[in-house]
Amino acid sequence: MTTTVDALFDISALVSDEEREWQMRARDFAQTRIRPIIDQAFEDRRLPVELLPEVGELGAFGMYLHGYGLPGASSVAYGLVAMEFEAVDSGFRTALSVQGSLVMGAIWKFGSEEQKQTWLPRMGRGEAIGCFGLTEPQGGSDPNTMLTSARRDGDEWVLNGAKRWIGLATIAEVAVIWAKDEEGVVRGFVVPTETPGFTATAIENKLSMRASLQCEIELTDVRLPADAMLPEARGLSAPFKCLNEARYGIVWGAMGAARDCLEVGVERAQTREVFGTPIGGKQLTQAKLADCFVEYEKGLLLALHLGRQKDAGTLTHGQISVGKLNSVREAIAIAGTVRSILGGDGITSEFPVMRHMANLESVRTYEGTDEVHQLVIGRELTGLAAF
């Protein structure tokens, strides 16, 4: 299964056979199981939750983690899977990221052995879904303003507060909730969602990520045993490490959306005729496609470079910001350019381009806005914090 874009830029020469196999399996799943239903799911504002157990069977949840029945694949392999999922829809790749990078990543990095044994095997198989409660209504890009509190009461913790824009919360069996203890230190807690006082409500009025699931969480005197706390998580650096994992997936994923738009643009340029010839034979159209392809190829090479650094243990948060900023910004530009090639038809659901454009606006916002990543990069360059 080779695409036009693949043929011009053959990434298979740059990845291992195992990494390529992961990509091809993910592509087959995305194209045969997700694509046929994603447009209607977007219209219906519905995440195709029935496919999540199949993602578990594929082995893609937490696939780069080791132990607990997880595949222990390379970070590059995971990036390729994220790219294939997002080539169909950003929202479905988001589910992969929330489950595998945020929730499973938090438990794997900071959890007790009991927490890991309890949740990671089931989550890896897709038998249990999780959510990651960090962002708050008043906080946005500044989680240090966190109001959610964790108070010790004898042998229990009592959580109170609210979270917003939390993926998968209404279908989750477990939540990783971040709260400030009585000393003002951010702590993570493993919260079964059936715990009294935990309420999740889907956000319904979205014009982006409609085939995805984002929610609000209310925590009202949620009582947890002492061992619900993630023992190795202390301070905001803990959730930030989880966010870096998710941002890394976006570096690849956004290039998947860009590739899908490019494929649509190339096919349309070959088949649509104006003034007696295909529009692909016009210089301006070829220039647009060429410029889009160059940015796609550069973005994919950057993703691959970052993936190799991640596997080598040398990837920094500043470098992740470079990748996230570039990939999403260029994917949005590519989608917009392809939409112009499609003309008026480009705004219809006959083509996936407007859906990608709308979704990418959300991807641009979550896991750090463009402005946040610009400031992270600026700090790295100058040594001066501007936020």
Automatic annotation (TrEMBL):
Keyword entries, A-Z: FAD, Flavoprotein, Oxidoreductase, Transit peptide
Pfam families: Acyl-CoA_dh_1, Acyl-CoA_dh_M, Acyl-CoA_dh_N
Cofactors: FAD
Domain of life: Bacteria
InterPro entries reported in the protein's UniProt record: Acyl-CoA_Oxase/DH_mid-dom, Acyl-CoA_Oxase/DH_mid-dom_sf, AcylCo_DH-like_C, AcylCo_DH/oxidase_C, AcylCoA_DH/ox_N, AcylCoA_DH/ox_N_sf, AcylCoA_DH/oxidase_NM_dom_sf, Glutaryl-CoA_DH_mitochondrial
Acyl-CoA dehydrogenase/oxidase C-terminal domain location: 234-381
One GO term of the biological process aspect: fatty-acyl-CoA biosynthetic process
Family: Belongs to the acyl-CoA dehydrogenase family.
Domain annotation Acyl-CoA dehydrogenase/oxidase N-terminal: ranges: 16-127
Domain Acyl-CoA oxidase/dehydrogenase middle: 131-222
UniProt-recorded name of the protein: Acyl-CoA dehydrogenase family protein
Record-level Gene Ontology MF annotations: fatty-acyl-CoA binding; flavin adenine dinucleotide binding; glutaryl-CoA dehydrogenase activity
